[in-house]
Amino acid sequence: MIDNNLIRLLISLTEEAAKGNYQETNSIFELTDSSRYPGEISRLAESFGMMLVQVEAREQRLERLIEELKIKNKNLQEITFQLFKANIGMLETLGNLIAKRDSDTSSHNYRVTVYSIQIAQELQLDDNTVRGLIKGAFLHDLGKIAISDNILLKPSKLTPYEFEIMKTHVSHGAEVVKGYDWLIDALDVVQYHHERFDGSGYLKGLKGEDIPLNARIFSIADVFDALTSHRPYKKAFSYDKSIDILEKGGDNFFDPHILKTFISISKKLYKDICKNELEDLKEKLNMFLEYYFTTEKITIRKK
Description:
The chain is mainly alpha-helical. It has 2 domains: 66 residues, no CATH class; 192 residues, Hypothetical protein af1432 (Orthogonal Bundle). Helix content is 66%, strand content 0%. It contains 12 helices and no strands. It is elongated, with a radius of gyration of 33 Å. The termini are far apart.
């Protein structure tokens, strides 16, 4: 007859193994001695012991696999971070290249991008939408690379024919961003930032909410910056005059809700951004880039 104490011991050891307390189960191997314990007990203990050995071996392999995955994940994060830096560097380089060719400074691209982000945040837009807005804002005039200097740099008013040529910068820019997957969400701004709320814009003549949201946001930021900045053909307008011009053209050119939102924060934006030096603007934008582009699906290690 099998000793009940041995049965209870086996049950206890089984329960400890189920909890992962393998150190507590080493005594199982003592029960495999058939000269001291009944044959049924020793055979059961031997089977149980072999099972423990296999479980421990599998756990060790699993631990090694986890460590290998950690290393691979770390390498993936590093590669992703480097790709992020390359993409952002490309974004800035292209935007600044066009700004320089257009007899402008790079500051314009930084200002309109920061203005656009601030409007988007006030509207509580999701991160994916804002990422596309950032790319589009910085590359909005990318297509001007295809416009000849005698039109692009002409100091006087363009003729109707020349203006038609100038309009094509929108489609040229769209073609460029369509060819690069990482920039495809910039298309709404690049292609539609000259559309007007009343349908009088170009190239498609879109009207109202048929104009993509990011393009409606950016057009306000772009015009505000144009009004408050010095250009070769005009002096910078004051904040009050610029807002007055925006409000007067609001019914025709801009989404009224977005315009109202922008005006509610515009005085602070003007004070914080309009007169900033380029390096300060870069620092502001880099803060936004770090937030919006390092919180995507893969966590990117900061440096």
